[in-house]
Amino acid sequence: MASFSAALVALLLASCAVAAAATTFDVGDGHGWQTGVDYTAWTSDKTFAVGDKLVFNYTRKAHTVTEVNDSGYSACSGANSLSNDDSGATTVTLTMAGVHYFICDVTGHCPNGMKLTVTVTVAGGSTTGGTVPTGASGVSRGPAVSAAVAAAEGALVALALFS
Ligand SMILES: [Cu+2]
């Protein structure tokens, strides 16, 4: 039983460490949030963890930061948005693990590059382990991520039972 408790403590410590080391990302770096920027390239050398922040810089009202689900992302449609802002400086705190989708909902902008996919991991490196925040909702997950999250939640239940 001791090993189960030790594992649980390790998981808790890992989540604290991640929270303490939260990173703030300026989306697009010097380019900001605008058309003609390859945001897939921008994310390609970065990892995102729960607690990190995304800062979108753009001209107020000229663009939007609209969080959508995967189908909204594919269709470049903000019709069923999860959140929306056009203030010019939008900060999004990544509170949930999984895949997050952002588009600009101004006509023509999303097809011209204003679409961003961010895969948020839990314990700094993997979606298949670590703790999962309770009460996660509002963001749809792909099937693979859902399975991983379910597995992680199952592991936590097992730990709780055997502690
Ligand atoms: Cu735009």
Q: How would you summarize what this structure contains?
A:
The protein has 163 residues and is of the alpha/beta class. The chain is built from four helices and eight strands. The strands form two sheets. A five-stranded mixed beta sheet has the order 2-8-7-4-5.
Defining key terms:
single chain, 163 residues, alpha/beta, Immunoglobulin-like, 5-stranded mixed beta sheet, 3-stranded mixed beta sheet, 4 helices, 8 strands, globular, disordered C terminus, binds copper (II) ion
Characterization of the model:
The structure is a single chain. This protein is an alpha/beta fold and 163 residues long. It has a single domain (2-162), classed as Cupredoxins -  blue copper proteins (Immunoglobulin-like), CATH 2.60.40. It is 31% helix and 21% strand. The protein has four helices and eight strands. The strands form two sheets. Strands 2-8-7-4-5 form a five-stranded mixed beta sheet. Helix 1 crosses helix 4. It is globular and about 35 Å long. This is Phytocyanin domain-containing protein. Residues 23-122 form the Phytocyanin domain. GO terms for molecular function: electron transfer activity; metal ion binding. It comes from Triticum aestivum. Residues 1-22 form the signal peptide.
